[in-house]
Amino acid sequence: MHFFVLLTLMSASIWNLRLRVLAHSFHDARYAFTFERETYDSWAWLALEEGLFSFSLGRGAAQICTEGGWVLCPPGVALTRQIQRVASYHFVRFEPFDERAAPLLTSFAGYGTLRDSARSKANFAALRAASFGEKNHEWRAHLLLDFLRSAFHEKQLATPIAPRDALMETAQRFIETHFAEKISLEALAQSLGLSPSAFSRRFAAGVGVSPQEFLLEIRLRAARRRLLETDETLDCLAPKCGFASGFYFSRMWTKRYGVSPARFRRLHRV
Predict the structure, then answer these.
(1) What residues does 30 pair with on adjacent strands?
(2) Is 217 exposed, middle or buried (0-12, 13-18, 19+ CB in 10 A)?
(3) What is the pTM of this model?
(4) How confident is the model over 87-94, as a mean pLDDT?
(5) What percent of the chain has pLDDT above 70?
(6) Which of 134, 157, 180 is the last residue of a domain?
(7) Who wins on pLDDT, 165 or 258?
(8) Residues 220 and 87 placed together within one structural domain of the fold
(9) How far apart are CA 222 and CA 178, in angstroms?
(10) Could you give the CA distance from residue 15 to residue 213 in angstroms, rounded to a whole number?
(11) For 65-90, what is each residue's pLDDT tens digit?
(12) How far apart are CA 222 and CA 216, in angstroms?
């Protein structure tokens, strides 16, 4: 299957993925793991806030997990790990609601990290707070999904457009620069000399998602920063991120993330 077609199919699946968290624990300033090799009957996510550890999956080669990184281990695969520098880490066991999601999760197996360090730190802080008091496993599942979805989205944005479609690169830059404005994708297509349908197909082939999905994701990421970094009301921040109203923004946010902006802000800002 063509790489960009596969990327598009995965994009459609990652937003529909739902996880059930079975257990979550936070371990602070540890000099060694209790067990250096274990095999689990569920998915396991070992995420490092501070320190350094080495790991391997199954018979794979040893790798290093640095601060902010994580290891996603499939069920039935041996996870070997050894702390190299005093470590603070999260351990989560989970399973997908739909067993058909296993191939998608397998594509994330192994080492992962986010380039967006602010997002990573905020998610880790919220997970840490949850381990001390918040018992809602749905919230933990939301945070874990945010790590995975963000990593996938970063991979999409970093994927070079092949074969160097300059016209679609122009479209990307326009959307990233003007996302807060009232953008007409039909008008953008016309300015590029394309019909709306041709523009949509060509953009998806190059970027991996439709222009509508790309625009929405850019707007939601901008809104997320404002939710975490400001005390602006939804009606105030919505138009700065390209949404017509606070109500519409709240509806789109909740549809995407499964939690209201108000609850996200309350639990994420710790």
Answers:
(1) 87
(2) buried
(3) 0.58
(4) 94
(5) 90
(6) 157
(7) 165
(8) no
(9) 12
(10) 11
(11) 999 999 999 999 999 999 988 899 99
(12) 10
- Of the listed ranges 39-53, 94-108, 159-173, 202-216, the least confidently predicted one is 159-173
The gap from C-alpha 121 to its chain's centroid, in whole angstroms, comes to 13
Residue 264 has pLDDT above 60, yes or no: yes
Angstrom distance (rounded) from CA 192 to CA 180:
20
Q: Fill in the DSSP letter of residue 101.
A: G
CA–CA gap between residue 264 and residue 136 (Å, rounded): 13
Separation CA 96–CA 116 (nearest Å): 25
At 206-231, the pLDDT tens digits run: 777 789 988 998 898 889 888 888 89
Give the three-state DSSP class for 189: helix
Task: State the residue range of the domain holding 44.
Answer: 3-157
Q: Based on the structure, what is the number of domains in the chain?
A: 2
Same domain, 186 and 259: yes
Instruction: Find residue 89's DSSP bridge partners.
Output: 27, 48
Q: What is the DSSP letter of 259?
A: S
C-alpha angle 72-90-143 in degrees, rounded to nearest 5: 75
**Which tokens sit at 44?**
């396991």
Both 14 and 43 in one domain: the answer is yes
Return d(Cα 34, Cα 248) in angstroms, integer.
48
Phi, psi values for residue 11, rounded to 5°: -60, -40
d(CA 49, CA 124): 7
Give the integer Cα–Cα distance in Å for 140 and 143: 5
Query: CA torsion 146→149→154→158, rounded to 10°?
Result: 180
Residues contacting residue 130 through CB under 8 Å, at least 6 positions apart: 24, 136, 139, 140, 143, 267
